[in-house]
């Protein structure tokens, strides 16, 4: 069996570890991170050329199943995968870690997009801890009367906010570390995507303890009709049933 994992996440790497070497695994990475953590098995980097290009790749490489284990906010590739899998008649599964949920004491402000997050954050504070990654900073570039602390794995490229410091780091993060960031930089609002998972959730606890508002960008939907599982073990079980 040849399985294509659309990866780049912790769950995708774990799934490759579960399957390899019993199953031929090809993990596809978008190439947006300079030094990614590579999974076992075959690895390809870069796009496919849309849904048509991916469908052609599936046929040429005789792929038996596709598992979309991309980041919950990598919406474009998920819809390309759905179209390609249908065209190539290859079964498709989406692997999505569960999203976060507010608890007592949280001051969450859910929004539908980064543009809406920028408007809401600018109204809530002037020292903004931005943890949405380096790819969407253009949505905040027009805000000149606030200071941003931007955390990302690789250095961001413009356009980005005019008043900004960059913190280069990669999760998992600790609660003590997140508390120290909020204190040292006098953060008064946190902006995050609902990525889910434990690796980056300590910032939510630190914000709750500090009484800070949190602007949370809701994740996009999985393409209609695509089955979804929450963990790598469930994805491996789905493959074994096939």
Can you walk through the features of this model?
The protein is α/β, with parallel strands linked by helices and 242 residues long. A six-stranded parallel beta sheet has the order 3-2-1-4-5-12, with helices on both faces. Strands 6-11-10-7-8-9 form a six-stranded parallel beta sheet, sandwiched between helices. It is elongated. It starts with a strand and ends with a helix. It is 31% helix and 23% strand. Helix 1 links the parallel strand 1 and strand 2. The longest helix has 14 residues. It contains seven helices and twelve strands.
Give the gist of this structure.
The chain is α/β, with parallel strands linked by helices and 242 residues long. Helices cover 31% and strands 23% of the residues. The radius of gyration is 19 Å and the shape is elongated.
The secondary-structure element order is: EHEEHEHEEHEEEHEHEEH
Quick one: how many beta strands? 12
Outline the biggest β-sheet.
6 strands, parallel
Mean pLDDT, all residues: 95
Question: Which spans of ≥5 residues are poorly predicted at pLDDT below 50?
Answer: none
Q: Find the structural class using helix and strand composition.
A: alpha/beta
Q: State which percent range the strand residues make up.
A: 15-25%
Strand arrangement, largest sheet? Answer: 3-2-1-4-5-12
Helix content: 25-40%
Number of helices: 7
Termini separation (Å)? 10 Å
Shape: elongated
Radius of gyration: 19 Å
